[in-house]
Amino acid sequence: MAAYDYDLFVIGAGSGGVRAARLAAMTGARVGVAEEHRVGGTCVIRGCVPKKFMVYASEVSQQLKVAEGYGWSHAEHSFDWARFIADKDKEIARLSGIYVTNLQNAGAEMVHAKARLKDAHTVELVDKDQEVTAEKILIATGGRPWKPADVEGIEHAIVSDDAFHLERLPKSIVIAGGGYIAVEFAGIFNGLGVETTLVHRGPNILRGFDDNVRAHLAEEMEKRGIKVILGCQHKAIEKTADGYVSRMSSGADIPSELVMFAVGREPYVEGLGLESAGVELDETGAVKVDAYSKTTASNIWAVGDVTNRINLTPVAIREGAAFAETVFRDNPTSFDHEMVAAAVFSQPPIGTVGLTEADARHACRKVDIYLSKFRPMKTTFYGGDERCLIKLVVNGETDQLLGCHVVGPDAPEIIQMAAIALKMGVTKTQWDSTCAVHPTLAEELVTMREKYLPPELGAVA
Ligand code: NDP
């Protein structure tokens, strides 16, 4: 008789947990998976996927403007939020169902419960009055939005989880934060006709991204009607007769029908009983892991946002796959966190891979920059003033391309392909030897020949 109920017990059925569970089960291991909410995790249920549907819905208003510029005339348009949300929920339920089926087909067993570690091999299924034992355990519980407790009236603010289920669209919204979620939802609400104000404590949005990208996006967001207020943060949120007023550190009072906080996410470790199993956390509150995702307990691993490495769905999936390969196929595999491309589904969107100019200047003795800002041909036709930005960061000594940053239509699609070349260590000379595809926005990537110098250093070198 087996010593444990399971060979592997996975806590959390999001992107990382499901991938690891399926791959482990496919080797013949006895795998159990506990999920307290719906199967699919943040990405499918309250993140990437429903967010992208909202982006698609909100982009239509801009497309209607473009249509007019191309000779179309149309009658009044209206947007039915309730119908959209119902359809979105239907699609999310379908996708969640596919996750369940895939787990079952792989032979994994699903348990709908919150799991808590009693010791390194025993998992309590809370509210089920049941315990299971496992030889190995994988923690894949993801992250959760947090709100700062020192803002008076913070209970009035919604977070991204709530934004997917609003009963109706507000007339106006104040969004706090300057990260991925804040800029993406600012674009969504603005595109859907909500008067949108983004307030961020820093000197510009998207800290960590290339400075030209940050400045360019803020400018383009303002052109589309989003009010971007920098260098201030909430002191309090007060309820009023028709909404709320945000009292800001600058002294400004901003009224709005809704306030949303998007000031980061934290690893979801609450109530997991990690201390009972010898699993330590790092200084950010994330589960401490080595390159193979092993925690400080010898039979427990962790993948995805709960480890706060790179908090992106495809990274969690790769970490989950590497774990299964290492532990269940006896093939030590660690995911390489270098050169991971990312997309921000702001409007316009961003695609980015590799080093920012600032990081490159820190790391290399000589850095060459190639930068182009232009109106895409689709826009020039109707006299629009939206601009794209393309920037390449090159090691001036080795000619290696260190970073590629694109802001403009289809930037997330473009960057996926650019990432392959950068990951392979492409040089600028090799990159430039690739013939352009015309007429496209992306062709600009391989036609930039003149080095860029910031205006204060004297235009183009
Ligand atoms: P981010 O970490 O991206 O941004 C958090 C923002 O909140 C920053 O601008 C930060 O400012 C600000 N902030 C932090 N604390 C406070 C505070 N006390 N008061 C005011 N502002 C504050 O978090 P998000 O919630 O936007 O997203 C979480 C993560 O989820 C992302 O980092 C990303 O990894 C992932 N994600 C990825 C998406 C994608 O792939 N497209 C989409 C959405 C999320 P400062 O810069 O000054 O610290």
Question: Can you give a write-up of this model?
Answer:
31% of the residues lie in helices and 24% in strands. The chain has twelve helices and 21 strands. The chain is globular and about 70 Å long. It binds NADPH dihydro-nicotinamide-adenine-dinucleotide phosphate. NADPH dihydro-nicotinamide-adenine-dinucleotide phosphate binds next to helix 6 and strand 17.
Q: Please identify the top-level CATH class of the largest domain.
A: Alpha Beta
Proportion of residues in helical segments? 25-40%
Give the percentage of residues in beta strands: 15-25%
Strands, total number: 21
CATH topology of the largest domain: FAD/NAD(P)-binding domain
**CATH architecture assignment of the largest domain:** 3-Layer(bba) Sandwich
Structural class: alpha/beta
Number of helices: 12
- Give the cofactors and ligands: NADPH dihydro-nicotinamide-adenine-dinucleotide phosphate
Shape: globular
The major β-sheet equals: 7 strands, mixed
- Distance between the first and last residues' Cα: 74 Å
| Mean pLDDT across residues | 96
- Rg, Cα atoms, Å: 24 Å
The CATH superfamily of the largest domain bears the name: FAD/NAD(P)-binding domain
- Name the poorly predicted regions: none
Kindly give the count of domains. Answer: 3
Brief synopsis:
With 461 residues, the protein is an alpha/beta fold. Helices cover 31% and strands 24% of the residues.
